[in-house]
Amino acid sequence: MDSIPKIIVSASPHVHSDKTSKKIMYDVVIALVPAFLVSLYVFGLNALIVTAAAIVSCLLFEYLIQKHLLKTNVTISDGSALITGILLAFNLPANLPIWMIVAGSLIAIGVGKLSFGGLGFNIFNPALVGRVFLLVSFPVAMTSWPTAMENTTTLTDAVTGATTLGILKDGLQFGGTIPELSAQLPSNTDLLLGITGGSLGEMSALALLLGGVYLIARKVITWHIPVAVLATMALMTAIFWLADPEHYANPVLHLLSGGAILGAFFMATDLVTSPVTKKGMVIFAIGIGVITVVIRLFGSYPEGISFAILIMNAFVPLINKYFKPRRFGSKIKAKIV
Amino acid sequence: MLKTFPKGGVHPPENKLTSSEQIKRLPVPKMVYVPIAQHIGIPAEIVVEAKEKVGIGQVIAKSGAFVSSNIHSPVAGMVTKLDMIVDSSGYKKQCIVIRTDAKNESNFQEVEYPLEKEIELSPKEIMQRISDCGIVGLGGATFPSHVKLNVQDDKKIDCLIINGVECEPYLTADHRLMLEKSQEILMGIKILMYALNIDRAIVGIENNKKDAIALFKKSTASEKGIDVAALQVKYPQGSEKQLIRALLKREVPKNGLPMDVGTIVHNVGTIFAIYEAVQHNRPLMERVVTVTGKKMESPSNYWIKIGTPIKDVIAGAGGLPEGTRKILNGGPMMGKALKNTDVPITKGTSGIVLIADEEADRGETKNCIRCGECVSVCPMGLEPHLLMNLSEKGMFEMAGQEDILTCIECGSCSYVCPSHRPLLDYIRFGKDVTKKLETSKN
Q1: ipTM, interface predicted TM-score of the complex
Q2: Please, what's the largest Cα pairwise distance for chain A?
Q3: Is B366's CB within 8 Å of A272's CB?
C-alpha cells in the first residue's frame, strides 16, 4: 500500500450530483436579469443606482456583521446576500433615497437573515423583511412611484404617479367604479410588457415569467408554489369580479399588476423560507394567494403579496410538521391475490 | 411506459465501462482469506483446524443457526491459520486462511458442467441443497437464501421476482451474467418456481441493458408464467421494496417482508448460484465481480474466488492506476471505501471500483438551505434533512418517530444535497443509536 499517496475512506455515497447551492443561487440571479433589463429600460439610470445600492449594502452588511459582530465565517460569496440585494431593489420605487435603501438592506441582512443564524436558518424572506420595514417606516417615499415614460429618453424625469393597484384602491375608495377608472388603468398589454408604474422589478410580467420558467427548467424551483399562488389569486378575484364587475377588477389585471408574479416566482419560492414537500408548498401557496387577495380587496394597502408571503413564512415550520411525505409502506393498498 | 417506483430516486451518471466485457478468469490466488461472517445473521462455526488439508468445495465453517450459512473452501490446499483480519466493514473478523496447493490440478481446471434441464430433486431437497451449498443473496445484502425461501405457513407467495436491475453506477456483473448464463438463470427460475409451487415469475431489468432484456424476452417467449419487464433506469430500483413496488404495485409494509405482499425477490447472481447448487451440487465458492474505474486501462468483469485479497484482484486486472484516491468494495452509491487492499472478496462483493482524484472529493459542507431535494429523492418518503438534524442533536426518540429505521441507506439524499451535507452519515449513526435504544426498551 506504500505506492498509494493518499487514500480517502468515507462512507457512501461516493459520487455526487453536480448541483451545488452556489449554482442554485447564481441561477436565481440569472433568472432575474430579464426583469432588471426591463427596469433599466423603463427607469434608466435610477434602476441601476437603486439595484447597485441594495446589492452593495447587502453584501457589505453581511461582511461587516459576520466578520466583526458575530465573528463567524464570511459567506458573502455564496450568492444569497446578492439575491437579497437584487430582490430588495426589485421591491423598491426607482426614486427611493439611497440612505433608505441602505437602511432597508441593514434590516434585511441583519434582522431578516443573520439574527436567525444566517443562510438556512432564517424564517422570513430577508428581502421582504427589508421591504416591509421600509414600507411601514417610510410609507410616503415607498409609495411615490416615478411614472413610466412612453418616451424612454426622458427616463430620469421626476414625475410621480400611482401604480395600477393604487389607482384602483383610491378610485374605488372615493366611490368610483371600474368602468369609470378604466381610462386611467394601463392596458393588459402594457402590464405584460412593463410600461406601468410600480417597483423596479414589478414592471414586466413577461420578463418575470421568462425568469420563472428558467428557474423551473433548471429545477431550482418547482411549479407548485407559483402556479398555486397565481391560480388562487385568479380564482378568488374571478369570483368577486363575476359577482360585481363594477367594484372588483378582473383577474387578469390582478395577476399582471403589482408584485403578483415577482412574488409568486421569486419571493414565495425562496428555498429557505418555503415548505420542503410539494403538498406543503401548495398549502403555503394557497395561503399566500388568499391573503394577498384579501389585502388587495379589503385591506388598507393596495398591494399585499409581501405581507402575505411573510405571514405564510411564519407558518412554514407548522406546514412542514403536518404535511409530511407519505412514508413508504405506511398504508397498504396492494391486495394479495 | 416503462415501469418504475413512483416516489424519489436519482439517476447518477452510469459509467458502465465494462458492460461489453466478457467475464474473464484471474489466476488462482496463492492464499485465500475466507471470513466466517459473509452473510447477514450469525457467523458460521469453523469446522477445520490449522494445518488441516481441505479440498475444493469442502465445508470449512458450518451454519449453526437458522439465519446463518455454510462457508466452503474455494480452493484445494491447506489451512495455514485461523486469524482475525480486517474485512470490508473495517473491523477485524475471524477468518480461515488457506494456502492454495499449487500441485493440485483441481485448483486450475475449470469445470464446465453441461446445462441440466431436468429437475430431479423434490422441493424439500432443493431447499436443503440451497442451504447446504451456502447460497446467500449476491446482490449485496447477503441474506441466506434458504431463509428467504422458507415461507411461513400463513403466508402465500404468488410471484417470484428476479432482480436483474443492477442500478448501481459502474457495476455490470449481473448484466454480464445475464448475457452469458441466461439458460442457467432461466433453469434457476424454474427450479425456484417448482420448489415454491408458484406459476408466476417476473425478471426485472433496467432499460440500460437492452441486450439482456432482448435475450431474456426471447428465451422466455415460450415459457409459461415467466415474464421479462423492462424498467425505467432509476436508482435505487435494485432495492427489494422499490422493485416490488415497480413490478407489482405492491408496497411492503413498514417492518414487513416481501413475503407479506406475496412475493420473494432474488438477484440474478443468486439464481445462477442456486442453479449450480441444485443441479450440480456446487457450493458458492466464486462470484462475478466488476473491477472498474475511469483510469483503469482495461476495466472488466471477473470470476473471482471468495477469499481472494482485493490487491490480487487489482493486480490481476492491470494494477492500481495513478491517482486512485478511493478503493470501493461495491458500487459508488452503496459500496464501502476500503482503508487498504488486503481485504478479501466475499460473497457480497459485486464490484471493486477505483475512484480517481477529482471524483473522490466530497466537497465542502455548507448550511442546509432547506431546498427539499433530499425529501423529494427519498424513495422511502423520509425527510433526510430532518433525520440528520435530529441525529446531530441527539434527539433519537424523535428520530425513531420520524421512521429513521426504515431508511434503506441508498444515499440518494447525500447524492443530491446541493450543500454537500453528509446526510446519510448522520442518519446511519442515528439509526444505530435508535436501534439500540429500541432493543434496550423491549
Answers
A1: 0.86
A2: 88
A3: no
